[in-house]
């Protein structure tokens, strides 16, 4: 699955869930790497983050899990709602 396939996947998900949720108006795929709770100096932190150099990588996937995230006082609770396998 290439990056150009992601919008098509999102449309398929919207179609599958149309009886439960309204379609995304503006889809933005993302991956959460970290969640920061407190930063002493946000300007310095933003500068530091912008200057991190990451290597480009390629990878393939054969499935993904649709997760629900609920934030509470102890942190997020993640629940797998469904797993989708790709037929290759």
Give a written overview of the molecule.
The protein has two helices and two strands; from the N terminus they run ααββ. It has 88 residues and is an alpha+beta fold. It is extended and about 45 Å long. Strands 1-2 form a two-stranded antiparallel sheet. β1 and β2 form a beta hairpin. The chain has one domain.
**What profile does the largest beta sheet have?**
2 strands, antiparallel
Give the beta-strand count: 2
Poorly predicted regions are none
Spatially, the strands of the biggest sheet line up as: 1-2
C-alpha Rg, in Å? 17 Å
Strand content: 15-25%
- Mean pLDDT, to the nearest integer, reads 83
Distance between the termini: 9 Å
Structural class of the helices, strands and pairings?
Answer: alpha+beta
Shape: extended
Helix coverage percent of residues?
Answer: 10-25%
Number of helices: 2
Question: What's the helix-strand series?
Answer: HHEE
Count of structural domains: 1
Topology:
Layout: H1 6-16, H2 42-50, E1 63-72, E2 75-85
Antiparallel strand pairs: 1-2
